[in-house]
Specification:
37 strands; alpha+beta; five-stranded antiparallel sheet; 28% strand
């Protein structure tokens, strides 16, 4: 049925002015006309500005689809913080329900009064559209939008790079409030507003904002990098460039939220650009050095010397005040401090060190890792003084065998074969020390032998160490101070104990090998595999005989068990081009040094067994290994 347009303006309806039945007839005609021509929707009805008055249901649905359809399908622009995102309404779960909207707009009164009144209606009626939202689709879309638009809060930062100060702009944190976002989208859908829908967000302001970042740049960072600072150290000038300063300088917030400078003075002091000239200007302390004279008595080979040093604290106090100055004002004094030697000449003389108590030398094949690791351990041990009744510890003196402590990878024994490990080679130092204390007649407290025998060491008179598991410890029970001299070459090392002899002589004895066990054959692979020659396992006993006045006054026995050293060949790794079954080498490493892990401490007999801690450590080490696994240095 066609739409009835403006009955009041275009047509005139003449009511017969007659009495009685004529009026009734006229009203009946109007009612019929209303039913025939007025449609399902009253005149003046609009949906979002679309006039659907006087239309039938079908006509109204078509009109709404035609007029509002493009808008209903157009992408929805959303503003989240400073970002604008767009999404199709369908992806947001939004749609216009034209049928339900028309149902909402249709006339609800079909009696004569309602129908005839609709013919003469001259006002307007706005009907809200029916918006549908698929909650599951909408929430999934909001979750995705929240994830992609989330902005982490970022404080203002100032960094120093290659002698220049650079700032990072602060930004607030922005997070979409998801529970409210769906309601906002539903309410804004199809509205005439041309701007993006502003979704609710939670904002987190940075602690260090743009104002504070700018202040810190102006007042400190830019002046700090404006030129070098010059320090006077013991009358010598030292210049530090902005690039070097910037490597060890940063700005960080204090408790009040202000960016303040922080100088890594330890790092700056260790920087080669600063450390080298300071080392040339200052001098290290020098210990007094006892040595043996031609007559066999001990004298001072070198007097001690007080050193001067620059501390990190002094460097910080000198540098920081200069960074905000300019020109000649960027110059200041750097104080030095006196450093006393560990052993002064006066202390050395008071020790009463008279003679050589014992000395032992171990030779080894030259290898870069051995030279480095043995030399570093010797450096840390040399010059140690052990007072009467005091305990000496290898691990405590040498420290953990790490790159930071000056050690490199070497050869170790793990699961009965050679592999690479940090600190390989230091067992030569432990063995040398063990023999020095053996022949000095002092008391061993904790020690352990290698898992299998290494030919260059005396049978039953050798030791290994393991950081955190096995130590080499002894007590100076000689009644006099002992001074340790340690020195090494590329192929040997010697440890000498200077003091006062308690016994005229210490003699060593050795029994035959017993409980001999033959080695097996094994094949290894991988980059850590090392070829290994076979050697039998056995037990051996050695004795320590104490002689005083030409007579034996005491005897001790040391028992050691060695496992077999299996023959090991190494298969090539895939892709090396070697023939299947070929070995990676045919020669075992010459006398490799075992790693830091013991079989078990070997207590001397009859002296007391190692401490409970040492025994527990050995038991734990044994319990954690599979049968046949004997890691050691």
């Amino acid at each position: 049925m066609g739409r009835v347009r403006s009955w009041t303006g275009n047509r005139r309806i003449v009511l017969p002015v007659v009495a009685g039945g004529a009026v009734v007839l006229g009203l009946g005609g109007l009612y019929g006309a209303g039913l025939a021509f007025a449609g399902d929707i009253d005149q003046g009805t609009r949906v979002l500005g679309v006039d659907i008055g006087g239309m039938s249901r079908a006509e109204a649905r078509r009109a709404l689809s035609r007029e509002l359809g493009p808008t209903a399908a157009a992408p929805v622009a959303m503003q989240i913080g400073d970002r604008v995102e767009k999404a199709d309404p369908a992806d947001l779960g939004l749609s216009l329900d034209t049928a339900a909207t028309v149902d909402r707009a249709v006339r609800t009164e079909y009696g004569p009064v309602g129908v005839i009144g609709g013919l003469f209606a001259s006002g307007s009626r706005d009907v809200e559209p029916v918006i549908r939202m698929d909650e599951r689709t909408g929430r999934a879309a909001v979750d995705r939008i929240a994830e992609t638009t989330r902005q982490q809060v970022r404080d203002g930062v100032i960094a120093f790079d290659q002698g220049a100060a650079k700032s990072v702009t602060p930004q607030p944190g922005v997070a979409l409030i998801e529970d409210k976002a769906l309601d906002t989208l539903r309410e804004a859908y199809l509205r005439p507003d041309t701007g993006p829908v502003v979704l609710p967000v939670e904002r987190t302001e940075p602690r260090i904002g743009a104002e504070e970042t700018g202040r810190a740049m102006r007042q400190f960072a830019t002046p700090a990098m404006s030129g070098p600072v010059t320090l006077t150290v013991a009358g010598t000038r030292l210049s530090i460039s902005p690039a070097v300063l910037g490597e060890h300088l940063k700005m960080q917030p204090d408790a009040k939220g202000r960016l303040v400078p922080a100088l890594d003075s330890k790092g700056l002091l260790a920087d080669p650009a600063v450390a080298r000239p300071i080392e040339e200007i200052t001098q290290s302390p020098r210990d007094a050095v006892p040595r043996l004279g031609a007559d066999g008595h001990v004298l001072l080979g070198a007097e001690s010397r007080t050193g001067r040093e620059v501390t990190a604290t002094a460097l910080s106090r000198a540098v920081l005040p200069l960074l905000t100055r300019s020109g000649p004002a960027r110059t200041g004094e750097l104080a030095t401090a006196a450093v006393q030697p560990d052993l002064t000449s006066a202390e050395a003389r008071r020790l009463g060190i008279k003679e050589k108590v014992s000395s032992f030398t171990v030779e080894f094949p030259a290898a870069p890792y051995r030279i480095t690791n043995i030399g570093r351990a010797v450096e840390l041990i040399n010059g140690s003084v052990v007072q009467p009744g005091e305990e000496w510890s290898f691990n405590r003196t040498v420290g953990e065998r790490t790159p930071e402590n000056g050690f490199v990878d070497g050869i170790m024994i793990n699961d009965g074969q050679y592999v690479k490990s940090p600190g390989g080679g230091v067992s030569a130092v432990a063995t040398t020390m063990f023999n020095a204390l053996f022949f000095a007649g002092v008391k061993p407290v904790e020690y352990g032998a290698h898992s299998f025998y290494i030919e260059r060491y005396p049978e039953g008179r050798e030791a290994t160490v393991a950081w955190g598991t096995l130590d080499l410890r002894w007590i100076n029970d000689s009644g006099h101070p002992l001074y340790i001299q340690a020195e090494s070459t590329d192929t040997s090392l010697t440890i000498t104990l200077l003091g006062t002899k308690k016994y005229d002589e210490i003699r060593a004895t050795k029994g035959p090998r017993t409980n001999i066990t033959q080695p097996a054959k094994r094949t290894g692979s991988g980059p850590t595999c090392e070829v290994q020659t076979p050697l039998e396992g056995f037990d051996v006993s050695v004795g320590r005989v104490f002689v005083q006045g030409g007579k034996e006054v005491k005897r001790e026995e040391f028992k050691t068990h060695y496992t077999p050293r299996d023959e090991v060949t190494c298969t090539p790794e895939p892709g090396t081009g070697a023939e299947p079954g070929a070995t990676a080498g045919t020669k075992a490493p010459e006398a490799p040094v075992a790693p830091e892990a013991p079989v078990a401490p070997q207590p001397p007999q009859p002296p007391a067994a190692p401490t409970a801690r040492a025994a527990a450590a050995a038991d734990a080490a044994s319990a954690s290994r599979t049968p046949g696994e004997h890691p050691s240095y």
